[in-house]
Amino acid sequence: DTDGKRHDPKEWSPLHEAKQVISYLRNDKNQRDPKKPFFIMVGMNPPHSPYRSLDDCMEEDFNLYKDQPIDSLLIRPNADRQREKAESARYYFASVSGVDRAFGQILDCLKELKLDKNTIVVFTSDHGETMCSQFTDDPKNSPYAESMNVPFLVRYPQHIRPRVDNLLLSSPDIMPTLLGLCNLDKDIPANVQGSNYAPIFYEDSVQTVARPTGALYIQNMDGDKDKDGNVISYFPRSRGIKTQQYTLALYIDRENKLTKTLLFDDVNDPYQLQNLSPEEHPEIVKELYQELAKQLKEIDDPWYQQKILSDILPY
Protein backbone atom coordinates (compact mmCIF):
# COMPACT_ATOMS: atom_id res chain seq x y z
CA ASP A 1 0.00 0.00 0.00
CA THR A 2 0.99 3.67 0.14
CA ASP A 3 2.95 3.07 3.31
CA GLY A 4 4.86 0.11 1.90
CA LYS A 5 2.93 -2.51 3.84
CA ARG A 6 2.40 -5.83 2.05
CA HIS A 7 -1.11 -7.33 1.90
CA ASP A 8 -1.93 -10.95 0.96
CA PRO A 9 -5.71 -11.10 0.41
CA LYS A 10 -5.82 -14.88 -0.27
CA GLU A 11 -8.75 -14.55 -2.64
CA TRP A 12 -9.25 -14.05 -6.36
CA SER A 13 -7.94 -10.55 -7.04
CA PRO A 14 -10.97 -8.99 -8.85
CA LEU A 15 -13.23 -9.91 -5.92
CA HIS A 16 -10.78 -8.43 -3.43
CA GLU A 17 -10.43 -5.27 -5.50
CA ALA A 18 -14.20 -4.91 -5.84
CA LYS A 19 -14.52 -5.19 -2.06
CA GLN A 20 -11.92 -2.43 -1.61
CA VAL A 21 -13.80 -0.15 -4.02
CA ILE A 22 -17.13 -0.85 -2.31
CA SER A 23 -15.59 -0.12 1.09
CA TYR A 24 -14.28 3.19 -0.27
CA LEU A 25 -17.65 4.11 -1.79
CA ARG A 26 -19.39 3.33 1.49
CA ASN A 27 -16.67 5.28 3.27
CA ASP A 28 -16.20 2.53 5.84
CA LYS A 29 -12.91 3.99 7.07
CA ASN A 30 -13.70 7.66 6.48
CA GLN A 31 -11.21 7.70 3.60
CA ARG A 32 -13.02 10.43 1.69
CA ASP A 33 -15.09 13.57 2.09
CA PRO A 34 -18.58 12.50 0.94
CA LYS A 35 -19.30 16.09 -0.12
CA LYS A 36 -16.51 16.03 -2.70
CA PRO A 37 -16.26 14.18 -6.02
CA PHE A 38 -14.16 11.02 -6.17
CA PHE A 39 -12.07 9.28 -8.81
CA ILE A 40 -11.36 5.55 -8.66
CA MET A 41 -9.31 3.48 -11.10
CA VAL A 42 -9.53 -0.29 -10.73
CA GLY A 43 -6.93 -2.27 -12.68
CA MET A 44 -8.09 -5.88 -12.56
CA ASN A 45 -5.43 -8.32 -13.76
CA PRO A 46 -7.71 -11.06 -15.19
CA PRO A 47 -8.38 -12.00 -17.86
CA HIS A 48 -4.62 -12.30 -18.30
CA SER A 49 -2.24 -15.12 -19.09
CA PRO A 50 -1.46 -17.65 -17.88
CA TYR A 51 -4.77 -19.41 -18.42
CA ARG A 52 -3.77 -22.87 -17.26
CA SER A 53 -5.56 -23.94 -14.12
CA LEU A 54 -8.09 -23.08 -11.44
CA ASP A 55 -5.38 -20.95 -9.86
CA ASP A 56 -6.13 -18.42 -12.62
CA CYS A 57 -9.92 -18.15 -12.18
CA MET A 58 -12.78 -19.19 -9.91
CA GLU A 59 -14.00 -22.78 -10.14
CA GLU A 60 -17.66 -21.76 -10.35
CA ASP A 61 -16.83 -19.72 -13.45
CA PHE A 62 -14.71 -22.46 -14.99
CA ASN A 63 -17.63 -24.86 -14.56
CA LEU A 64 -19.61 -22.71 -16.99
CA TYR A 65 -17.17 -23.59 -19.77
CA LYS A 66 -15.38 -26.81 -18.80
CA ASP A 67 -17.65 -29.01 -20.94
CA GLN A 68 -17.97 -26.56 -23.83
CA PRO A 69 -16.39 -27.79 -27.09
CA ILE A 70 -13.42 -25.62 -28.07
CA ASP A 71 -15.02 -24.81 -31.42
CA SER A 72 -17.96 -23.24 -29.56
CA LEU A 73 -15.58 -20.88 -27.76
CA LEU A 74 -13.02 -20.15 -30.50
CA ILE A 75 -15.54 -19.26 -33.17
CA ARG A 76 -13.53 -16.75 -35.20
CA PRO A 77 -12.69 -18.07 -38.68
CA ASN A 78 -9.03 -17.12 -38.18
CA ALA A 79 -8.69 -19.18 -34.98
CA ASP A 80 -6.42 -22.24 -34.95
CA ARG A 81 -8.24 -24.64 -32.64
CA GLN A 82 -5.40 -27.17 -32.85
CA ARG A 83 -2.92 -24.94 -31.05
CA GLU A 84 -1.76 -26.02 -27.63
CA LYS A 85 -3.07 -22.74 -26.24
CA ALA A 86 -6.62 -23.58 -27.35
CA GLU A 87 -7.35 -25.27 -24.04
CA SER A 88 -6.73 -21.89 -22.38
CA ALA A 89 -9.98 -20.59 -23.87
CA ARG A 90 -12.04 -22.19 -21.10
CA TYR A 91 -9.98 -20.47 -18.39
CA TYR A 92 -10.02 -17.21 -20.33
CA PHE A 93 -13.81 -17.10 -20.54
CA ALA A 94 -14.02 -18.12 -16.89
CA SER A 95 -11.87 -15.11 -16.01
CA VAL A 96 -14.10 -12.84 -18.10
CA SER A 97 -17.19 -14.09 -16.27
CA GLY A 98 -15.48 -13.53 -12.93
CA VAL A 99 -14.54 -9.97 -13.81
CA ASP A 100 -18.13 -9.36 -14.93
CA ARG A 101 -19.32 -10.45 -11.49
CA ALA A 102 -16.81 -8.30 -9.61
CA PHE A 103 -17.47 -5.24 -11.77
CA GLY A 104 -21.19 -5.80 -11.33
CA GLN A 105 -20.77 -5.67 -7.56
CA ILE A 106 -19.27 -2.20 -7.90
CA LEU A 107 -22.16 -1.05 -10.08
CA ASP A 108 -24.65 -2.50 -7.59
CA CYS A 109 -23.00 -0.54 -4.79
CA LEU A 110 -23.20 2.71 -6.76
CA LYS A 111 -26.92 2.09 -7.24
CA GLU A 112 -27.42 1.17 -3.59
CA LEU A 113 -25.79 4.44 -2.50
CA LYS A 114 -27.80 6.39 -5.11
CA LEU A 115 -24.57 7.49 -6.78
CA ASP A 116 -25.20 5.74 -10.09
CA LYS A 117 -27.01 8.65 -11.77
CA ASN A 118 -24.19 11.12 -11.20
CA THR A 119 -21.13 8.90 -11.66
CA ILE A 120 -19.26 8.43 -14.93
CA VAL A 121 -18.37 4.74 -15.24
CA VAL A 122 -15.86 3.57 -17.84
CA PHE A 123 -14.98 -0.03 -18.67
CA THR A 124 -11.97 -0.57 -20.90
CA SER A 125 -8.76 -2.58 -21.31
CA ASP A 126 -5.12 -1.95 -22.18
CA HIS A 127 -4.97 -4.60 -24.92
CA GLY A 128 -6.81 -7.57 -26.36
CA GLU A 129 -6.06 -11.29 -26.56
CA THR A 130 -5.46 -13.12 -29.85
CA MET A 131 -6.38 -16.45 -28.21
CA CYS A 132 -5.20 -18.70 -31.07
CA SER A 133 -6.23 -16.27 -33.82
CA GLN A 134 -3.71 -15.21 -36.47
CA PHE A 135 -1.57 -18.32 -35.76
CA THR A 136 0.24 -16.68 -32.86
CA ASP A 137 0.47 -17.36 -29.14
CA ASP A 138 1.35 -13.73 -28.41
CA PRO A 139 -1.79 -12.22 -26.86
CA LYS A 140 -0.87 -8.63 -27.76
CA ASN A 141 2.10 -6.81 -29.36
CA SER A 142 0.51 -6.99 -32.81
CA PRO A 143 -1.73 -4.84 -35.02
CA TYR A 144 -4.31 -7.62 -35.38
CA ALA A 145 -7.86 -6.66 -34.43
CA GLU A 146 -7.99 -9.26 -31.65
CA SER A 147 -4.98 -7.62 -30.02
CA MET A 148 -5.47 -3.93 -30.82
CA ASN A 149 -9.23 -3.45 -30.50
CA VAL A 150 -10.52 -3.01 -26.96
CA PRO A 151 -13.89 -1.98 -25.49
CA PHE A 152 -14.43 1.53 -24.25
CA LEU A 153 -17.82 1.56 -22.58
CA VAL A 154 -19.07 4.74 -20.92
CA ARG A 155 -22.14 5.04 -18.70
CA TYR A 156 -23.32 8.45 -17.53
CA PRO A 157 -27.11 8.35 -16.99
CA GLN A 158 -29.11 11.40 -18.07
CA HIS A 159 -26.05 12.74 -19.88
CA ILE A 160 -24.99 10.08 -22.40
CA ARG A 161 -27.51 8.11 -24.42
CA PRO A 162 -26.52 4.46 -25.02
CA ARG A 163 -25.28 3.98 -28.59
CA VAL A 164 -22.33 2.62 -30.57
CA ASP A 165 -19.78 4.94 -32.17
CA ASN A 166 -16.83 4.12 -34.43
CA LEU A 167 -14.61 6.80 -32.86
CA LEU A 168 -10.94 5.78 -33.16
CA LEU A 169 -10.25 6.56 -29.51
CA SER A 170 -6.66 5.79 -28.49
CA SER A 171 -5.02 5.48 -25.08
CA PRO A 172 -3.64 9.07 -24.94
CA ASP A 173 -7.19 10.37 -25.51
CA ILE A 174 -8.63 8.76 -22.39
CA MET A 175 -7.45 11.28 -19.80
CA PRO A 176 -8.44 14.46 -21.68
CA THR A 177 -11.77 12.93 -22.72
CA LEU A 178 -12.62 12.00 -19.12
CA LEU A 179 -11.71 15.51 -17.99
CA GLY A 180 -13.98 16.82 -20.73
CA LEU A 181 -16.85 14.62 -19.53
CA CYS A 182 -16.33 16.14 -16.06
CA ASN A 183 -16.55 19.68 -17.54
CA LEU A 184 -12.88 20.20 -16.70
CA ASP A 185 -11.77 20.68 -20.29
CA LYS A 186 -10.23 24.06 -19.41
CA ASP A 187 -7.88 22.26 -17.01
CA ILE A 188 -6.42 19.85 -19.58
CA PRO A 189 -2.66 20.53 -19.73
CA ALA A 190 -1.54 22.01 -23.04
CA ASN A 191 1.25 19.44 -23.41
CA VAL A 192 -1.11 16.44 -23.32
CA GLN A 193 -0.75 14.47 -26.54
CA GLY A 194 -4.30 13.08 -26.57
CA SER A 195 -7.51 14.88 -27.54
CA ASN A 196 -10.75 15.60 -25.71
CA TYR A 197 -13.59 13.82 -27.51
CA ALA A 198 -16.20 14.38 -24.80
CA PRO A 199 -18.52 16.38 -27.12
CA ILE A 200 -18.88 13.31 -29.34
CA PHE A 201 -20.17 11.32 -26.37
CA TYR A 202 -22.76 14.00 -25.66
CA GLU A 203 -23.86 14.00 -29.32
CA ASP A 204 -24.97 17.64 -29.30
CA SER A 205 -21.62 18.65 -30.76
CA VAL A 206 -20.92 15.38 -32.50
CA GLN A 207 -20.59 16.99 -35.92
CA THR A 208 -18.40 19.90 -34.82
CA VAL A 209 -15.52 17.92 -33.31
CA ALA A 210 -12.74 16.80 -35.64
CA ARG A 211 -12.47 13.03 -35.38
CA PRO A 212 -9.12 11.24 -35.42
CA THR A 213 -8.19 9.96 -38.86
CA GLY A 214 -6.08 7.11 -37.49
CA ALA A 215 -4.73 5.46 -34.35
CA LEU A 216 -1.04 4.64 -34.00
CA TYR A 217 0.30 1.12 -33.56
CA ILE A 218 3.62 0.93 -31.73
CA GLN A 219 5.79 -2.10 -30.97
CA ASN A 220 9.05 -1.76 -29.05
CA MET A 221 11.63 -4.40 -28.15
CA ASP A 222 14.62 -4.49 -25.83
CA GLY A 223 17.49 -2.34 -27.08
CA ASP A 224 20.93 -1.78 -25.57
CA LYS A 225 22.03 -3.29 -22.27
CA ASP A 226 24.52 -2.06 -19.69
CA LYS A 227 27.47 -4.07 -18.35
CA ASP A 228 25.16 -5.78 -15.84
CA GLY A 229 22.77 -6.92 -18.55
CA ASN A 230 20.04 -4.42 -17.70
CA VAL A 231 18.06 -3.03 -20.63
CA ILE A 232 18.75 0.71 -20.89
CA SER A 233 16.98 1.53 -24.15
CA TYR A 234 14.42 0.10 -26.52
CA PHE A 235 14.41 -0.75 -30.21
CA PRO A 236 11.36 0.65 -32.09
CA ARG A 237 10.71 -2.46 -34.17
CA SER A 238 7.36 -1.56 -35.68
CA ARG A 239 5.08 1.38 -36.32
CA GLY A 240 1.68 1.34 -37.95
CA ILE A 241 -1.62 3.11 -38.40
CA LYS A 242 -5.22 1.97 -38.03
CA THR A 243 -7.91 3.90 -39.89
CA GLN A 244 -11.63 3.31 -40.24
CA GLN A 245 -10.95 0.90 -43.09
CA TYR A 246 -7.32 -0.19 -43.05
CA THR A 247 -4.62 -1.52 -40.76
CA LEU A 248 -0.99 -0.99 -41.78
CA ALA A 249 2.14 -2.07 -39.89
CA LEU A 250 5.78 -1.73 -40.96
CA TYR A 251 8.54 -3.83 -39.36
CA ILE A 252 12.27 -3.12 -39.45
CA ASP A 253 15.46 -4.93 -38.46
CA ARG A 254 18.12 -3.42 -36.22
CA GLU A 255 19.72 -1.78 -39.26
CA ASN A 256 16.40 0.05 -39.80
CA LYS A 257 15.65 -1.88 -43.00
CA LEU A 258 12.07 -2.80 -43.84
CA THR A 259 11.54 -6.53 -43.25
CA LYS A 260 7.77 -7.01 -43.26
CA THR A 261 4.57 -5.15 -44.07
CA LEU A 262 1.07 -6.02 -42.90
CA LEU A 263 -1.84 -4.40 -44.73
CA PHE A 264 -5.47 -5.35 -44.13
CA ASP A 265 -8.79 -4.05 -45.40
CA ASP A 266 -10.72 -4.31 -42.14
CA VAL A 267 -14.06 -3.49 -43.74
CA ASN A 268 -14.01 -6.15 -46.44
CA ASP A 269 -11.75 -8.55 -44.53
CA PRO A 270 -12.69 -8.08 -40.83
CA TYR A 271 -10.77 -11.17 -39.71
CA GLN A 272 -7.64 -10.00 -41.52
CA LEU A 273 -7.20 -13.22 -43.45
CA GLN A 274 -5.56 -11.59 -46.48
CA ASN A 275 -2.37 -9.56 -46.20
CA LEU A 276 -2.59 -7.14 -49.12
CA SER A 277 0.40 -6.31 -51.30
CA PRO A 278 1.44 -2.63 -50.98
CA GLU A 279 2.62 -2.68 -54.61
CA GLU A 280 -0.86 -3.62 -55.77
CA HIS A 281 -2.57 -0.85 -53.75
CA PRO A 282 -0.36 2.22 -54.27
CA GLU A 283 -2.99 4.90 -53.66
CA ILE A 284 -4.22 3.31 -50.41
CA VAL A 285 -0.66 2.83 -49.17
CA LYS A 286 0.29 6.40 -50.07
CA GLU A 287 -2.50 7.79 -47.88
CA LEU A 288 -1.64 5.46 -45.01
CA TYR A 289 2.05 6.40 -45.23
CA GLN A 290 1.12 10.08 -45.07
CA GLU A 291 -1.12 9.57 -42.04
CA LEU A 292 1.48 7.44 -40.26
CA ALA A 293 4.28 9.94 -40.90
CA LYS A 294 2.10 12.85 -39.76
CA GLN A 295 1.23 11.21 -36.45
CA LEU A 296 4.77 10.02 -35.76
CA LYS A 297 5.97 13.58 -36.31
CA GLU A 298 3.29 14.98 -33.98
CA ILE A 299 4.51 12.86 -31.05
CA ASP A 300 8.20 13.21 -31.94
CA ASP A 301 8.51 9.43 -32.20
CA PRO A 302 11.96 7.79 -32.62
CA TRP A 303 11.00 6.84 -36.16
CA TYR A 304 10.51 10.54 -36.93
CA GLN A 305 13.63 11.58 -35.01
CA GLN A 306 15.80 9.07 -36.88
CA LYS A 307 13.86 9.46 -40.16
CA ILE A 308 13.40 5.68 -40.30
CA LEU A 309 12.06 4.53 -43.70
CA SER A 310 12.10 8.13 -44.92
CA ASP A 311 12.21 6.79 -48.47
CA ILE A 312 8.53 5.84 -48.12
CA LEU A 313 7.29 7.84 -45.11
CA PRO A 314 6.88 11.56 -45.98
CA TYR A 315 7.93 13.15 -42.66
SSE topology string: HHHHEHEHHEEEEHH
- How many angstroms separate the termini? 45 Å
> What name is given to the CATH topology of the largest domain?
Alkaline Phosphatase, subunit A
Which radius of gyration do the C-alpha atoms yield?
22 Å
Q: Percent helix among the residues?
A: 25-40%
CATH level-1 class of the largest domain: Alpha Beta
Tell me the number of structural domains.
Answer: 2
Averaged pLDDT: 94
Our estimate of the beta-strand percent is 5-15%
Shape type: globular
The major β-sheet equals: 4 strands, antiparallel
Corresponding CATH superfamily of the largest domain: Alkaline Phosphatase, subunit A
Which strand order does the major sheet show? Answer: 3-4-5-6
Uncertain ranges: none
> What is the β-strand count?
6
Assign the structural class, choosing from mainly alpha, mainly beta, alpha/beta, alpha+beta, or little secondary structure: alpha+beta
From the coordinates shown, what is the CATH architecture of the largest domain? 3-Layer(aba) Sandwich
What's the tally of helices?
9
Task: Kindly describe this structure.
The protein is an alpha+beta fold and 315 residues long. The chain has two domains: 147 residues, Alkaline Phosphatase, subunit A; 91 residues, Arylsulfatase, C-terminal domain (2-Layer Sandwich), CATH 3.30.1120.10. Helices cover 28% and strands 13% of the residues. It is built from nine helices and six strands; from the N terminus they run H-H-H-H-E-H-E-H-H-E-E-E-E-H-H. The strands form two sheets. It has a four-stranded antiparallel sheet with strand order 3-4-5-6, with helices on one face. A two-stranded antiparallel ribbon has the order 1-2. Helix 1 runs parallel beside helix 4. The longest helix has 25 residues. It starts with 12 loop residues before the first helix and ends in a 10-residue tail after the last helix. 23% of the residues are buried. The mean pLDDT is 94.
